[in-house]
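user:
I keep going back and forth on a fold encoding question. Separate attempts, laid side by side, tell us more than any discussion would. Would you put together a sequence-and-structure record for a protein of your own picking? Write it directly below this note and I will take it from there.

assistant:
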Amino acid sequence: MITLVKALTAQVLGLMLTSTLTLLSPALLHGPGYLVLLQAAAAALCSYILRQPYWWVPIHLLFVPSAMIMFTLQLPPGLYLLALLLLALVFWGTVQGDVPLFLSSAAVANAIAAIIERENAQSFAELGAGVGSVAVPLAQNLPIIVKAWERAPLPWLIMAWRCRKLPNLSVKRASLWDGNLAGYNIVFAFLSPAVMADLGQKISGEMLPGSLFISSCFPIPDWHAESLVTLKDRRRTTLFCYRL
């Protein structure tokens, strides 16, 4: 709820800042399109000042311009409701501070499979598993127990359907913060810099000594990684491997 209040506050402050600037300097008034862009930039700036997670900046930049474009297209009202419903199902917890959906590449799944085999791990967990880009191929190709947590309804539903014939994979529709990590040899997450410090506290308090935590792209602040694995996928993903 706090994140949603900050988002609304950023939009309102952006509108107020734009109105103030145009009143103080009428020369800025070059048409509605220019004002929309100015409001978007002001809202994004206010979001940054309010210390919202970084992914809110492009949301604020695109929100009002996208609304104006949709208004000029005069689309059927039902399409807006459908789009809102789909966005809510995919980004269910984002307004409450959760991490938005990021998809891992096949190269990430292959690299983690190699680590699992090298570690001779018997259990694996993924936090914020999305549609199962990592957990599903691991469960399909390795004799390992896999557990995944995903909160957003639509990604969870897709993953649940994908793993319906995989007895060694279970997916729970819950926040990644609700999972107990004590029973897993390897835990994987592809989240956001905004949550890594808190995640580090959860990991250190739950994972057993000798277990391995792997973070895709984002390190845990002030932690020393046992190893780094840089992949040749489109994102040039780096896996940060931490030994507990």
About this structure: The chain has a mean pLDDT of 82. Helices lie at 2-24, 32-49, 56-73, 77-90, 106-119, 135-141, 153-162, 196-206. Residues 2-74 form one domain. Residues 94 and 100 are 6 Å apart (CA to CA).
